[in-house]
Amino acid sequence: DFMLTGRPSVSFAYDLAHYAGTERGLFYDLEHVFPGPVCRDFAALCTVLERFGDGRLEPPADLDLRRRTFFDHLDDGSAWRVVGRVRALALEGATPMVRC
């Protein structure tokens, strides 16, 4: 969800190769969907954090495409959409699913 803010993000994925190689693996290539640098070791993380501290950490040029991979709406109206949908279901007489 932080991706929606457009603010800088850094991933410290030191175990990426191990995790990607497990049975569950990854749904997406982190390098293609994460909205910032993906650091695989501590030295890379330090370099990126220095760039961030100097104001030189820019979001990827395709940030909007990356956001649209996961979000249909890039605004602040999600709560109102949920309220509207719940009201519509209530007016239709739908019985909400209740889990015990």
Observed structural traits:
two-stranded parallel sheet; CDP-glycerol glycerophosphotransferase activity; mainly alpha; 2 strands
Description:
There is one protein chain. The protein has 100 residues and is mainly α. It has one domain (2-71). The protein is built from five helices and two strands. The chain has helices at 16-20, 30-33, 42-53, 63-70, 78-91, and strands spanning 11-12, 38-39. Strands 1-2 form a two-stranded parallel ribbon. It is elongated. 4% of the residues are buried. The mean pLDDT is 85.
- Count of discrete alpha- or pi-helical segments spanning 4 or more residues: 5
Helix content: 40-55%
By secondary-structure content and strand pairing, the structural class works out as mainly alpha
What are the secondary-structure elements, in order, as H or E?
Answer: EHHEHHH
Low-confidence stretches: none
Biggest sheet statistics: 2 strands, parallel
In total, how many beta strands? 2
Mean pLDDT: 85
Beta-strand content: under 5%
Domain module count: 1
**Separation, N- and C-terminal Cα atoms:** 28 Å
Strand line-up in the sheet with most strands? 1-2
Radius of gyration: 19 Å
Globular, elongated, flat, extended or rod-shaped: what is the shape? elongated
InterPro entries: Glycerophosphate_synth, TagF_C
GO molecular function: CDP-glycerol glycerophosphotransferase activity
